[in-house]
Amino acid sequence: MACTVTYLKHSGFSVRTPRHRLLFDYIGGDFARDGDAPVIALASHVHEDHYDPAIHGLADVCVLGEGIEPFAGAFTMRPGDSLEVEGARIRAFGSTDCGVSFHVRVDGLNIFHAGDLNFWHWRWESTPDEVREALEDFEAVLDDLEGLPVDLAFFPVDDRMGAGHDEGADMYLRRIRPKVLIPMHWWGRPEVARAYAAKCAGGETRVIALTEPGETVTLF
Predict the structure, then answer these.
(1) What pLDDT band is residue 34 in, cutting at 50, 70 and 90?
(2) In 10 A of CB 56, how many CB atoms?
(3) 20 to 30 A from 127, CA-CA: which of 4, 39, 173, 212?
(4) Does residue 77 sit in helix, strand or coil?
(5) According to the model, what pLDDT value does residue 35 have?
(6) What is the DSSP string of the chain?
(7) Cβ atoms within 10 A of the Cβ of 216, count?
């Protein structure tokens, strides 16, 4: 059940499994078909840093989080929806921004892409009530995810929040315990991803920083 992960841009990755190609939150980058493997593109939500309509021409199947304008042949998913397509089982979970997060079971692998699911807080300007509400919203989604097997996860580590910017990722690791996590959504600051990988070194989850477009890693 080996897979090859390629970093494309921002929160965009391709994942090559033995019989499939997954394309998550594509907004550009070098992507080409690889043999006859079907390409399934998943877009978590409509924000331009997560969705490019170009996926329509890149994929055999497009799966869109709610809020993205649908088009012929695409599937739209809301939190709680399930879909089986091209031999992949896709489940949509909640987000703490808009759209969805995705769990995909394919070729014996369980893959989670958070989209904009995170513990979003700006403590220097938010009130204690706003921070508490953000935490409760995030924990509610983690409750839904707990117990779900995850071999590979993609999760935001966004230092625009300042202090505590990796609290959401820490909580996700403690609650869900993926085998591998790749930080994303670090807005052109690769040192943020590298620092988080260094912080987590030796932990239960292997954290890998992919920071150059086209950089790959083969797992499992």
Answers:
(1) confident
(2) 13
(3) 173
(4) strand
(5) 85
(6) --EEEEEEETTEEEEE-SS-EEEES--SS-----TTPPEEEEE--SSTTT--TTHHHH-SEEEEETTSPP-TT-EEE-TT-EEEETTEEEEEE--SSSS-EEEEEETTEEEEE-TT-S----TTTS-HHHHHHHHHHHHHHHHHHTT---SEEEEE--GGG-TTTTHHHHHHHHHH--SEEEEE--TT-HHHHHHHHHHHTTSSSEE----STT-EEEE-
(7) 13
Q: Which domains does the chain have, with CATH numbers?
A: 3-219 (3.60.15.10)
The beta strand positions in 116-158, using DSSP E, are 152-156
Which residue is associated with the tokens 């953000």? Answer: 134
Q: Which structure tokens are listed for 189?
A: 């600051």
Residue 124 has a pLDDT of 85
Is the pLDDT at 97 greater than 80? The verdict is: yes
Phi-psi region of 177 (alpha: psi -120 to 50; beta: other; left: phi over 0): left
Output the six-digit token pair for 144: 């839904």
